[in-house]
Amino acid sequence: MKYDTIIIGGGISGLVAGITLCSAGQKVGIVSSGQSALHFNSGSMELLGHDGRGNDVDNPCEAIKLLPPSHPYSKIGAATMAAMLADVKDFFARAGIKLCGDEHHNHYRITPMGAFRPAWLSLDGYAMFDRPAHLADGTILIVNIKGFIDFYPEFIRHALETSNYCEIREISHPKIERLRKSASEMRPTNISAVINGDVVKDIASDINSLIEQTGADAVIMPAVVGSLNGHPDAELRQRVKKPLYYAPTMPISVGGMHMQITLRQYFRSIGGDYFLGDTVSSAVIDDDGHVCSIFTDNLGDTPLEADDFILASGSFISHGLLATYEKICEPIFGLDIEAPENRADWCSPDIYSQHPYMSAGVATDNMFHPSIQGRPVRNLFAAGSVASGCDPLHEQSGAGVAILTAMFIAREILKTYHRHDI
User: Which of 282, 284, 362, 302 is nearest to 328 (CA)?
Assistant: First the structure.
């Protein structure tokens, strides 16, 4: 099978690149092994949340200018970054995902454990704080689903009570109660599957009754409302008498899965091929150092050929990078890696401090071309966390790096693609 571009990895980086290319007329295939980091997403995305000293960043665009030349943002360049950042919300809106936020001013999101983290964009309806602990004036009602163990209202209350008085209440519904046959069934995705139609109306009525009882001025509930069939999350917010905000739960994330599925469906709707549940087993590289084709487990001896390839396979969690006791490696192409040479230097003795191995990844040039034994592979690009140069966890930059490197690479591929059409 022949494509213009083949992307290895179906997470946010692979999908952003695929949608950008497909929208411009390319024939694109994405090979995805399954779950991506979006399944663990909080409903918010970071651009740059912490500086090199561990301080919270207020204006990411200004802080990005101070990053070292090896950072992916520096390789993209300030002017290109600014142009792409201005288009991100519209890009997701075209796919059917509404995001709120501003690249010039981070807001704060709340974690399931009640901590506050800087964020760039959040799903519409999610709790966004201008500063930690300040959501609204007055009393906040925290509503949990009875029997739901992946949301911790006491932690949320503890975090918010520096600015607000909080009340905690529980609600339920017969259709949700049916899930309580075992604890494993009271999970976010299972609950979200039954909160639609009349269930939304009933839950709204219950919450409104609790608002009257407590005199609450705002409501927070776990982000377990959402579906690809309609918008029950928005409907519930409309039916509740006071402002209702969603807070993330422990994984799996309903909001993150909604984003993953929505982007995947949009990619397919504009002509993309998405090979779900498949893994790349090997690649063919010619004597000139160009990737000719890849082979996957499911397709067997049938090669996938393309003019360009994008490696968006993620980092260690998704096995885009592998770590043995001796070395860190990239398993598909055997690409050159940037990582501390001494195994003892991979980690810090303090488990809560920054660990150098988190910055490890595929070595790339300024166009995100990787190399094999020092020789660049000109029709292969590395996007997102598989590439070296940043520490997404320490910097709080993972989503931004994934989205912006993907956009940049796709636009560079299209420059050559459109020249061929002239």
Answer: 362
The answer to whether residue 231 scores a pLDDT higher than 90 is no
Of 361, 369, 360, 374, residue with least CA distance to 408: 369
- Compute the half-sphere exposure of residue 213: CA atoms within 13 Å on the CB side of its CA: 13
Taking phi over 0 as left and psi of -120 to 50 as alpha, with beta for the rest, 167 belongs to beta
The helix-helix angle for 254-269 and 88-95 (nearest 10°) equals: 80
- In this predicted structure, the answer to whether residue 64 has a pLDDT above a threshold of 50 is yes
- 174 in Cβ contact with 199 (< 8 Å): no
**Interaxial angle between packed helices 12-23 and 398-421, expressed in degrees from 0 to 180 and rounded to the nearest 10:** 20
Mapping DSSP onto H, E and C, the string for 238-297 reads HHCCCCEEEECCCCCCHHHHHHHHHHHHHHHHCCCEEEECCCEEEEEECCCCCEEEEEEC
SS3 of 188, please?
helix
Q: Does pLDDT of 422 surpass 50?
A: no
CA gap 299, 242 in Å, rounded: 53
Q: What is the CATH number of domain 136-247?
A: 3.40.50
Residue boundaries of the structural domains of the chain: 2-39+260-415, 136-247
Give the SS3 label for residue 235: helix
pLDDT in tens, 281-314: 999 999 899 999 999 999 999 999 999 999 999 9
pTM: 0.93
Q: What sign has the CA pseudo-torsion 322, 324, 329, 332? A: negative
- pLDDT mean over 117-146: 92
Q: Residue 99's closest CA among 47, 142, 24, 48?
A: 47
Question: Hunting for tokens 């039954």 — which residue is that?
Answer: 194
Question: What's the rounded Cα separation, in Å, for the pair 171 and 132?
Answer: 27
* Residue with token string 């690809």: 228
Using 50, 70 and 90 to split pLDDT, how confident is the model at 124?
very high
- 3.40.50.300, 3.30.70.370, 3.90.1150.10, 3.50.50.60: CATH of 2-39+260-415: 3.50.50.60
Can you spell out the DSSP letters for 39-85? GG--SEE-S--B-TTSPBPS-HHHHHTTS-TTSHHHHH-HHHHHHHH
Q: Distances from the Cα of 43 to the Cαs of 236, 363, 397, in angstroms?
A: 18, 30, 14
